[in-house]
Amino acid sequence: MQKYNTPVVRVIVGTGVILLALAGGAEAQTKVPSGRETQIRAGYGQSIVAVHPNPASREARAARADVFYPFPRPRLAGFSPQIAIATSDENRPPDFEFEHDLESSYVGLPLNAPANRNFVIGFLDSGASFDLAAGTYANTLGLRGVYLTGNTVTIGGVGGEVAGTITYPIGYFIAGLSAVDATGALNLNAVVGHSNVSMVVAPEIDCGNGEVLSAVAGLPLMAFYNSIIRVDTPRRATVGGVTYSGPDIELRQPGVPLPVFARKIALEFGGLAPATTANYYLFPDPFDPDTFEEPLIPTLLSTIPGSPPLGGAFFATLLVIEGEAGPTNPVQEMRVLVDTGAQSSIMSEAMAANLSLPFEPDFTVDVCGVGGLVTGVPGYFVDYVKMNARGGALEFSRAPFVVLDLPAVEGTALDGVLGMNFFWDRNVIFEPSLDASGFFHVSEALPIAYGDSDVDLDVDDADSAFFMTCFTGADAVVMGPDCDHLDLDEDGDVDLTDFAWLQACFSGADLAAEPFCGY
User: Fold this and answer.
1) What angle do CA 430, 431, 435 make, to 5 degrees?
2) Is 263 helix (H, G, I), strand (E, B) or coil?
3) Domain annotation covers residue 121
4) Which of 173, 222, 291, 389 gives the lowest tally of CB atoms within 10 Å of its CB?
């Protein structure tokens, strides 16, 4: 879920005290919110650390024109699939295969004992080419000293590049938040993972809002499991005094039955070469064939065991349009990388040009990536997005995209990244296949109460605090792009009408809110 760094504001249902205070103050003058600190994962090891509305944008004019949006409107930030990650020393003697081994339980000895305490909370990230840990999180996992090689790999993203250190082969294990007990210990019997894996350790990335990159389990693991992500079953875990929350996550091996959801979006594997497995790569010592050097390439998807791995990604195709469709404004195809680790969606500069988007953005964001902080990154609400699927197409109105050019996966620039903001209120399954049809399963929209901004199925102090940061008053010039879902009557502001719904829907922490409240 999105992390909200806001003060707590308690809503007292039925007293009208807060309502009267607002009526006498904030409602009296229009409020245009400035930037808000946040931490929204945008994939590729980067986070949106601030969002800024643009009062001069065409969005403000569209809001005042009372534009009708016939389809669901995605949020700026969707769910964040958080997982517990542990490590071990499990590998196998060097050979010419270097292939990973899938593991159904924890095996080996901890790199930093005990493993059930020295684990971290990271992310299930289908957009990551390799498993990765960064900064203090890598230290907690024991990824230091003798486990690090002298070799590096370039990690590119917003703002530039950094060098990540390649590790010696280890074991890498994950589980959903439900595997963490009330004392903050990880149930090692509940993990799955892979061993004989060479991963990457990145330097700490902090743009003044805390570390933005912790640890991820990427495609070298995810490509061999089916990942079930259930928004309707939120989980919490407290580790090291920090409470994490997110949807329930389960990984199942192919062949094990999956839940049946309403729609199946086609996934296509793409890359520089076909893939069947995952392995790291190194060269033997030419003077002693029985002695092997350090891994030169971390574990990536590869064509056959022992071949130099080239990686890859899973793609879907979107149909997008800005403005009214017609002979001179046709629907555009947009091939996007499907990224479970990205809470927001991205389109390339070229795609923005193909859609004839104006130079004036609807909003801007500040992005913290491996190269540091980049401010003023443009964002747009795109009028129409369609995803063809078995069971019927999914259609969306006013879909937010951040405009960024990202590193190529197939030798050409990406059209964009499909983040989880389109599925903030749906259960999904990432069902990849390297040699047959793969699918991204999507449930029907879940009934989420109005005001449940962190989608934990209650409306509590955290939600009301976030609402207060979004409050603009009536007839606002523009509201924050991450507040769009709170504009219940779609009049372009977050005002007392919307606040009345928040009061009506307030349930309190850990008490289920009426799911259809506000709709």
Assistant:
1) 140
2) strand
3) yes
4) 291
Phi, psi of 173, rounded to the nearest 5 degrees: -130, 145
Sheet holding 200-202, edge to edge: 101-103, 192-197, 170-176, 82-88, 120-124, 215-217, 132-134, 200-202, 160-167, 148-157
Please identify, among 260, 278, 303, the residue that sits at the C-terminal boundary of a domain: 260
> Do residues 117 and 182 both lie within one domain?
yes
Of 260, 290, 308, which closes a domain?
260
8 Å CB contact between 108 and 115? no
Q: How many other CB atoms sit within 10 Å of the CB of residue 27?
A: 18
pLDDT tens per residue, range 389-438: 999 999 999 999 999 988 777 777 789 999 999 999 999 999 999 999 99
User: What is the residue range of 25's domain?
Assistant: 1-30+459-519
Take residue 286 and report the two structure tokens written for it.
Answer: 């030419």
Asked if residue 212 and residue 88 are part of one domain, the reply reads yes
* Residue 120 shares a structural domain with residue 248: yes
The span from the CA of 14 to the CA of 22, in Å, is 15
pTM to 2 decimals? Answer: 0.90
CA–CA gap between residue 246 and residue 79 (Å, rounded): 7
User: For strand 346-347 and strand 363-369, is the pairing parallel, antiparallel, or unpaired?
Assistant: unpaired
Distance CA 218, CA 281 (A): 18
Looking at the structure, tell me whether residues 90 and 203 fall in a common domain.
yes
Instruction: Check whether residue 4 and residue 98 sit in a common domain.
Output: no
Whole-number Å distance between alpha carbons of 197 and 517: 48
